[in-house]
Design a protein that fits this description.
The structure is a homodimer of 242-residue chains.
Chain A (H helix, E strand, L loop, with lengths): L2 H16 L4 E4 L1 H5 L2 H13 L3 H25 L6 H15 L6 H9 L10 H10 L3 E6 L3 H8 L8 E4 H4 L6 H4 L1 H6 L6 E5 L2 H9 L3 E5 L15 E3 L10
Parallel strand pairs in A: 1-2, 1-4, 2-3, 4-5, 5-6
């Protein structure tokens, strides 16, 4: 037994596994776009809050939006639209703050979720992934129309939009991670998913995908049995796995 | 058409519906017991934190425990034990605080969840419900052994323990609210559930139960289409529905 040679073969096996990647799928709301940076000034202006208060407001809004989406998976009554989860989250935080806002201003704030800006390196990174010959896709909890709006700044660098709306459930439900297979006929083994949160890492890894975690806040997966394939403080680390 | 008489008949119908209550089921972790009040001093002592820091610590611990439980429903890989969700939540918060704690001390802190004290009025309230002739039960996300420990202070005032462990999922999944029917042969229409959180209200009302919300923190259901049958700042309001 030549241990050195075995080790090399194992390493070659690892590399062979990695080179089967055909599709790089991207989470949107955490991985590709900057919720806090985009919505904090909008919220501050609309509600006359200082930056710190607006930042807190957006954080709770996001938490409640996601809590309602998680409840949608559990209740078994079909998928509540993400726009409705977003609206309910807003109504919740407004009520907690004792702010009474007319319906049209609430609609405007919900629409601000369609104009969240990509992280500084996001558009170039997606372009580079595409230049290297991979298929690119958004794979996100957002509704189709919300994702279509968010995909615009990426132009033809983004090949496909895969919405949890098609799966009828939210991440980390496996049906969402099935979308590359059901919609693009690309097997999970050929996908590298770029996650923006520990929840997304858990879902992707549990379903058998490889997963890079763009972990901007130095967060940690709650359940450490789900280990991301790669991890970094922004999106650029994706390229090291390609 | 005698509108007055119709109105009276409707009212009698409402009353008739209410008097069919046979079982009063109680959520534990928010409705019956005081997580923050019980765990804050234990955590402060174990980790040498001041009360404010310990209070924050327990809040995040609880949030991550529940996040992992919600993920368990979505992942579709069976129910992760609630004790394991609790342990993962603790590990998460310790890591975020940069605290390295030996395994036996982590186990001790997780065990502290078996000794959380009832709210001041809880034992007497459950006793009064039972005195009035209703069947009483715990209906909770906790594992069987965790709930058995928490039920002890209630003695023979608590007739049954219904654990989400039997349902294989967590609230607000309807299978948990089916437990009175599957385990006690008591129909949902004959149950008044006492919820401790908006999530629990949503699940109980969605499944067709009546539901009283012991809403100690003046919280609000995220999705206001789910309206509790009754609501108050502590458990005593339950009696008004009986």
């Amino acid at each position: 037994m030549d241990t050195g040679s075995n080790r090399r073969r194992n390493l070659e096996g690892e590399v062979a596994k990695l080179v089967t990647i055909k599709l790089v799928s991207f989470d949107v709301y955490m991985a590709l776009i900057d919720i806090q940076g985009s919505l904090t000034p909008v919220t501050a202006a609309a509600l006359d809050l200082d930056t710190e208060a607006a930042d807190e407001f957006v954080r709770l809004w996001r938490a409640k939006q996601m809590e309602r989406a998680a409840a949608s998976n559990s209740l078994g009554l079909g998928r509540t639209l993400f726009r409705d989860c977003t609206r309910m989250g807003l109504d919740y935080v407004l009520a907690r703050h004792g702010i009474d806002l007319p319906d049209d201003q609430r609609r405007e704030l919900v629409s601000a979720w369609d104009a969240i800006r990509p992280w500084p390196e996001a558009i170039e990174l997606v372009g580079e992934v595409k230049n290297r010959g991979y298929v690119t896709a958004i794979l996100s909890n957002g509704d189709h129309d919300m994702l279509a709006a968010l995909a615009k700044p990426f132009g033809d660098k983004m090949d496909h939009i895969l919405s949890a709306e098609s799966a009828g459930v939210y991440k980390p439900h496996p049906a969402v991670y099935d979308l590359p297979e059901t919609e693009l006929k690309i097997a999970k083994a050929d996908v590298l998913h770029v996650a923006g949160s520990g929840n997304d890492v858990m879902g992707a890894i549990a379903t058998g995908m490889r997963c890079y975690w763009s972990n901007r806040n130095g967060d940690r997966v709650i359940d450490t049995t789900y280990v991301p394939t790669g991890e970094g403080a922004d999106l650029t680390g994706v390229l090291e796995l390609l």
